[in-house]
Amino acid sequence: MKAPTFTQSMSWLHTWSGLLFGWLLVPIFFTGTLAVFEPEISHWMRPEIRHAPAEPARALAVAEARLRQVGEGAPIWRVQMPSSRQPAVGIVWGSREQTREEVLHPLSGEVLPVRATEGGHFFTHFHAELDAGKVGRAIVCLVGLVMLAALINGIVVHKKIFQDFFTFRPQSSAQRSWLDAHNVLGVLGLPFLLLITYTGVVILVDSYLPAATYHFYDGKAGGPRGDVVRSFERRPAGVAAPLPSLAPLLQEAETVLGAGHVGWIGIRAPGDREATVQFMRHLDDRLGAVADHITFAAVSGWELGRQTEWNPVAYAFRTQVGLHLVHFGGYPAQWLYFLSGLAGTAMMAVGLVLFTIKRRKRPGHEFGTATARVYGAIESLNVATVAGVMLASAAFLWANRLLPADLAERAAWEIGAFFAVWALTLVHAGLRAPGAAWRGQFYAAGLAWALLPLCDVAGAPGLLDAMRLGVDLTALVGGLALVYLGWRVSRRFAAAAAKEAA
Amino acid sequence: MRIYQSWTQVLSRVLAAGLGGYAAAWALVFALGGWLPLARVSLWFLMGQILPVPLLLALLWAFAASSAARAWGWLLALAALLAGLGYLGKVLS
Predict the structure, then answer these.
(1) Measuring CA to CA, how many Å separate A56 from each of A59, A87, A463?
(2) What is the pTM of this model?
(3) What digits encode the pLDDT tens for the residues B40-74?
(4) Closest CA–CA distance from residue A6 to any residue of chain B (Å)
(5) What's the ipTM?
């Protein structure tokens, strides 16, 4: 056997790593795409919260009043200021070990009876660690590296990249047109795909290859951050002193961080003589995911220190993080990421389909006598990891409206709905022929997303605000697209069956 | 498409990509740390940004090499060379 050429080896790697890792890549990419709108989805999932624009001073006054009521004796208080994407005031109080939290109306200060839910964070969480902790993050990191390799060897395999960019042959053979779709989506999305995958690996890789931490910091994981982020904390004196109003400090903080730019406020040892108040800037308008901050001594009101300048290399690192998280750039940037993410998901899904289409035409003996059964299993996994995960994601949102508000472990049940439906799609795909499985699951996912607005209105009556309406309309459009896809797929399979019969 | 001789060959290449790549990436951090005149905090945040590159190249190399033995050999040689460079830098400084 002759040694394979470079192109052959890259093509082999692209095919097999694409298949094996595609089953994780598609769910990771799809949920990551949804996670772009994490705040909007979280808002949708807590319909008890209404949009109510409030001045920062008012929001802080509301939070402060409530914390003084419930948080006495707690060494840590935190306030999350309302923003356009997160309209309520969040308060947290407790110790390092245990915290409690509430959501307040930013004008009236009323404690909002929000339902227990993981919110849009579930998609972010699943995207980053498959709901499986450190092992899950390691898998995602590995999948990211393989994805980068697949992008590179995809380019190598695809030598006529520029020429083929203008080639789309929807009327030619099924395999040819699927390949064209895979190529167009891949090439068009290439800058985004490289950026999002590279930065994703950067975020995760140090945990599993801690060479730098080991060599430069003697293995102390918190060391690098400690060298970059200045801390102005003080030890509590153990001497009581009443906490003065925070309003004047907010005013002073805003002169440094910018009016309306305070995102978080942290109060340490409230009620102690040495209490401190730290104001942190939000990240919504800069590439680098670093939060400028300023700290005051609470009792005297003196500034203890501030940080608005950063180590340039650390800032560059955090820019990679920021480019991945897309908190910057407002809705134009977020929609660009969202649409690019969907296109990337489609590119990978088509890649998975290509694998089986090629083999459906020329059944080989790659796996000996088990070949037919292995191809069947591959086809089922393709259906469940593409259409199935889309149905499961919709089920997560349906569960949010359908489960009773006071159910014990409610947030866990919502997540359970996601995994239960996903498991059912795998069973369904295993029992049905490929054509019926694809059609059924695309129709089901399409209907589940398209009918989400109805579920929203019926399950949580009341005025829709812009964010909820945005989620509903996006779900409707996406759902209709999936129904259309199901219809196209069923026609394709019908045509192929007719051709075979003739 | 069968282009590699056997499944053991493929498995060997997968391990070369993983273990060889890991060793080479670790050694690269050690080598750059020994020679780059940067503060340790800057070094750390620089490494965090470039770490995917050696892992990626090792992965591609492991399958592009004409044999699994060559895939292993070059990766381990590179890791040893980088580790030596790093050690030299550490001794000299």
Answers:
(1) 5, 11, 24
(2) 0.92
(3) 999 999 999 999 999 999 999 999 998 899 999 99
(4) 6
(5) 0.94
